[in-house]
Description:
With about 180 residues, this protein is an all-alpha fold. It has eight helices and no strands. Helix content is about 70%, strand content about 0%.
Amino acid sequence: MIRSGTLKYNPSQLSIKFNRFVRFVRVGAFLHIMGLIGLIVFIIGLQKVFFYFDHEIYGSAYLWLFFSIWGLTIPFFSGFDALGRYQNYKQIKDSLYKRGFDPRLIKPFANSKCQRDAVLIAAEDLEIADQVKKVYHNMGYRWYHILPDAFIKNPLVLFYRIFWQRILFTKHYQLQNFYW
């Protein structure tokens, strides 16, 4: 745990950026994997499209064209979501540092696996991960709870504008107590 106010050395800009990148990758690991899967679907889909067009099987070609376009959208959505979860990570890290561990601070970030992952990475940085895991376990969350709670309660939430705004366009948060 390194706070900006108590540093005995001045880390270089390169080490700060590297550590921020590592945190971004760790916070959004699941989302980055989903983005890679989307790219794989896109590439395979394009190969199938060209194959079926060459053999004049147009129905299958258009179906694979749909899948490849769908696969291309996944990296964009998962990338924006990863940026949002990184903002959550920074926000909860500062809050936990300022106020200490309090379950009321982390409960608003229990709505999805990605948010819980962001809180857990922040808690690991602050060496309180066991307490956070215990709270989420007591709330009933397990490793297989992947889908957001809002989607489980109402699958039509995907058609609500506010759902996408909260997920994809989280406001930028500037760390106040840490370099990364």
